[in-house]
Automatic annotation (TrEMBL):
Gene3D superfamilies: 3.30.70.360, Zn peptidases. GO terms for biological process: folic acid catabolic process. It comes from Streptomyces inusitatus. Pfam families: M20_dimer, Peptidase_M20. Residues 166-262 form the Peptidase M20 dimerisation domain. InterPro entries: Amidohydrolase (IPR017439), Bact_exopeptidase_dim_dom (IPR036264), Peptidase_M20 (IPR002933), Peptidase_M20/M20A_hydrolases (IPR052030), Peptidase_M20_dimer (IPR011650), Xaa-Arg_dipeptidase (IPR017144). It comes from the Bacteria. This is Peptidase M20 domain-containing protein 2. Belongs to the peptidase M20A family. GO terms for molecular function: dipeptidase activity; para-aminobenzoyl-glutamate hydrolase activity. GO terms for cellular component: cytoplasm.
Length: 405
């Protein structure tokens, strides 16, 4: 059913009414990319818009400088539904993940929902969740700080090269293997040194040797983040920053123990010391709420955009939305904003995220999100169905919030 207290036509009109500002805000964020937890400009532009529309805005949500919570309380009690905005960029690439579209689309959805039904029940919120890229885990930090307490459901969309209502996301551990050796002159007396870089090399080779014996769904990848300081000094310190991902948190935890042993083995062979630590919280696998994903899909289809269900075998990344999806009903559909085949995290995706086409599609995404939000606050049956699905597949208590290996 595509229904509710206002017609889809009225909602389309409400979103069209904010299209100008949607594109203006999106482009402003796009040309000024900010890395995780430094998204000061994006925060100001987004909260400024929400203040103009009568939302009560709280900054520094959960103690994070660039997070915010904006709420529009309705005339009677009811559920609290949040639209999530991400707005961080990538080093060297800028908005190659299209978070400018997520952010502007999120605010547009909430503003249009309120404009369409000013007397809505419950609470319509926008939660600004900084630091999604590079293991920032902004949503995990906000959840740990209690920002999502009392939120009944959260919705967002992500730009992509195709449209799907629900896509799985891998669990991911963000790790650093740090090796410590002994420095020495690299030519006069190298035998007095013990190379931490040699340990890092051996460790990376060990990871490659292990690949065949890992589940085919696993992904292990990384960079040498410290390879020493000078060619004529035996490196006393070296580090490899890497991620371990797989379909489930349980599998990731097992793999983390195996790569930890590989680091210790590399250290043993090179007479150095190894320490494997987390550089950020573990991202949990994603649980898409299919009741809400189907509702979003129905609206998008009604607007003339074909959108399929996700493919379980499709390669996937990871997001801190996974952790949130263990706490409350969540959707994270993808809307095609770029030509098919445009890779995520690329220069091409950055360019594609600033086109008129991308903003047309973001307008459709915002309409879909606004519809789901309004239906959730006005239709107790939809809220109950979403809750029932969430509860049915819930992890045992105590595992959901902070997931650490
Ligand atoms: Zn992204
Ligand atoms: Zn990304």
């Amino acid at each position: 059913m595509v229904g509710g207290v206002c017609s889809l036509e009225e909602l389309v009109g409400a979103v069209a009414g904010v299209r100008g500002r949607l594109e203006e805000v999106s482009r402003a964020i796009h040309v000024r990319p900010e890395l995780k937890f430094a998204e000061v400009y994006a925060r100001d532009v987004l909260t400024g818009w929400l203040v103009d529309e009568g939302f009560a805005v709280g900054r520094r949500a959960g103690g994070l400088e660039t997070a915010f919570v904006a709420v529009h309380r309705g005339r009677e009690p009811g559920p609290c539904v949040a639209v999530l905005a991400e707005y961080d960029a990538l080093p060297g690439i800028g908005h190659g993940c299209g978070h400018n579209l997520i952010a502007a689309g999120a605010v547009a959805a909430a503003v249009a929902a309120v404009r369409a039904v000013p007397g809505h029940p419950g609470t319509i919120a926008v939660i600004g969740t900084p630091g999604e890229e590079m293991g920032g885990a902004g949503k995990v930090r906000l959840a740990d700080a209690g920002v999502f307490d009392g939120v009944d459901a959260a919705v967002m969309f992500h730009p992509a090269d195709r449209s799907v209502t629900a896509q799985h996301g891998l669990a991911a551990a963000h790790l650093r293997a740090r090796f410590t050796g002994v420095s020495a002159h690299a030519a006069k007396s190298p035998w007095e040194g013990r190379s931490a870089l040699a340990a890092a090399q051996l460790f990376l080779n060990a990871l490659d040797s292990m690949r065949q014996f890992m589940p085919p769904t696993a992904r292990v990848h990384g960079i040498v983040s410290n390879g020493g300081q000078a060619p004529n000094v035996v490196p006393a310190v070296a580090a490899v920053d890497f991620y371990v991902r797989d379909r489930t948190t349980a599998s990731v935890r097992e793999l983390v123990e195996r790569v930890r042993r590989a680091a210790l083995g590399a250290a043993l062979a090179t007479e150095t010391e190894a320490e494997v630590s987390e550089t950020g919280p573990l991202y949990a696998e994603r649980r898409n709420n299919m009741v809400l994903a189907a509702r979003f899909g129905a609206v998008v289809r009604a607007l003339g955009l074909e959108i399929g269900p996700g493919d379980a075998d499709e390669p996937a990344g990871s997001s801190d939305i996974g952790n949130l999806s263990q706490l409350l009903p969540v959707i994270h559909p993808y809307i095609q904003t770029a030509a098919p085949g445009t890779p995520s995290h690329s220069d091409a995706m950055r360019e594609a995220s600033a086109t008129a086409f991308a903003h047309d599609r973001t307008e459709i995404a915002a309409t879909g999100l606004a519809r789901v939000v309004l239906d959730l606050v006005t239709d107790p049956e939809l809220m109950a169905a979403a809750r029932a699905e969430f509860t049915a597949g819930r992890e045992p208590a105590g595992t959901a919030r902070t997931l650490r290996p």
